[in-house]
Inverse folding.
């Protein structure tokens, strides 16, 4: 019997397990005998009495996390095909083709002006504590390596010390620190610090602030939290902070300005608010307008990040990127992150990475064959 692709109803990510480990019904993940009186250690059991805790991978804020779904083909099944003839990234000369001489530098963007010493990018580390607490390593490491680092969503909006006037960001502590740390260690213009935005960041003018006040040249548009068509959630265990986020335009549940909710929180009836960000509703006209606005604000480079959507959305992303002169497109396999996507979505949402990137190649080739650049 083949093993199921998905492991459901129990995972270290949701701190759940089966009572009859080793004898589990594949379709539901339930114990083959679900016994009356079980305390409910599995996801179904735990969600019956601690519902929300089973939605996101745990413990929140101090993890990075990734899907455990076993696709028929994934990147671990692919090997690199070396060759005995010739060389790439170095002259085909035995005396020159030694390890420290290899050149992995890449140049890209519409004007080919983005230059990385190494061909990778960290694609979006946002307002979670795991990002904040490890920022020195991420920023300094990326900067001295000459690679790209993307500051994810909500960093300005979640910063209690940010100054917001008339609904727009005018000063920050966290975003400023993150950008400056990277800039201070950047060498000879290699690499880039990139600032992402979701619906709330856009309303707060976080990218305009980053461009105008922090000298950021590179900004990224995003079609939903975690490269999926969802909003992001964080837990807030402080009433004042929940009220501040509510004032800044976030959806905070339950309403922290409602006197009955305040009383219930102070009584200890519940201990955490949920801060949700909104789902972006993608329309071509608005997308084109936003690209124009960012360029007018001074953005030298504009990128787009997409990911776990259906094929037509990937086609849309690549077609619009070409049409509106996006400098590069990130297509995220969406199988992991800093834990702001629901655990089931990390496992069960969108096209698996190998197939997604195969489609990307086919769509790009089709446009290229028609003369697109
Ligand atoms: S509630 Fe049922 S399925 Fe869940 S762990 Fe207990 S016995 Fe197993």
């Amino acid at each position: 019997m083949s093993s199921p692709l998905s492991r459901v109803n129990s995972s270290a990510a949701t701190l759940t397990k089966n009572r009859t480990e080793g004898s589990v019904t594949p379709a539901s993940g339930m114990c083959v005998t679900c016994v009356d009186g079980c305390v409910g250690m599995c996801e179904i059991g735990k969600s019956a009495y601690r519902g929300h805790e089973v939605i996101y991978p745990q413990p929140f804020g101090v993890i990075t996390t990734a899907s455990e779904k076993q696709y028929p083909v994934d990147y671990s099944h692919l090997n690199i095909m070396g060759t005995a003839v010739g060389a790439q990234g170095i002259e085909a000369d035995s005396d020159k083709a030694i390890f420290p001489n290899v050149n992995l530098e890449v140049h890209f963007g519409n004007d080919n002006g983005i230059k990385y010493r190494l061909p990778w990018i960290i694609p979006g580390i946002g307002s979670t504590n795991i990002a904040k607490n490890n920022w020195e390593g991420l920023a300094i490491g990326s900067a001295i390596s000459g690679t790209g680092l993307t500051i994810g969503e909500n960093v300005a909006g979640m910063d209690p010390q940010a100054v917001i006037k008339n609904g727009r960001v005018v000063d920050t502590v966290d975003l400023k620190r993150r950008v400056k740390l990277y800039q201070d260690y950047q060498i000879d213009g290699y690499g880039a610090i990139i600032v992402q935005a979701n619906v709330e960041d856009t309303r707060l003018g976080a990218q305009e602030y980053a461009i105008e006040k922090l000298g950021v040249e590179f900004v990224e548009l995003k079609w939903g939290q975690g490269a999926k068509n969802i909003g992001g959630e964080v837990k807030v265990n402080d009433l004042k902070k929940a009220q501040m986020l509510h004032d800044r335009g976030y959806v905070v549940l339950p309403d922290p300005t409602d006197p009955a909710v305040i009383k219930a929180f102070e009584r200890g009836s519940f201990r955490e608010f949920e801060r949700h960000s909104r789902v972006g509703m993608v329309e071509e006209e608005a997308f084109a307008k936003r690209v124009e606005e960012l360029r007018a604000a001074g953005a030298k480079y504009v990128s787009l990040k997409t990911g776990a959507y259906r094929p037509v959305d990937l086609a849309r992303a690549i077609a619009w990127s070409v049409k509106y002169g996006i400098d590069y497109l990130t297509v995220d396999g969406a199988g992991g992150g800093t834990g702001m996507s629901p655990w089931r979505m990390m496992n069960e949402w969108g096209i698996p990475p190998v197939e997604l990137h195969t489609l990307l190649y086919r769509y790009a080739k089709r446009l290229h064959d028609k003369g697109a650049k």
